[in-house]
Task: structure prediction
Amino acid sequence: MCGRLGHRTDVCPTPEIQVCKGFATKKPPEDHRCDPKCALCGKDHPTGDKKCRKRYQVPYLLKKLKWERKRTQQRQTDGYSRQNQGQHNVEKNSTGILRLERDR
Result:
């Protein structure tokens, strides 16, 4: 399992990337000694341990990732609409719904 945020073993898009669960080391050798080190806070306990205070910040981190993805998509959409600006008329009706009409 890659160990990235939100990537469970059954749904990880990059299962070929292996990370030691206890030490957060990428591509650990078969005979490595596992001294726990949390990937969230860096302290000497396994990642996601109940005593880890950073563990409870995961929902915030997920929200931040979603916000960044949405922002990137919005920028891409804005770029597309600027490219096609002369091809469409955008009107807002009385209920606030946008309506697109192609220029002829």
About this structure: The chain is about 25% helix and 10% strand. The longest helix spans residues 58-83.
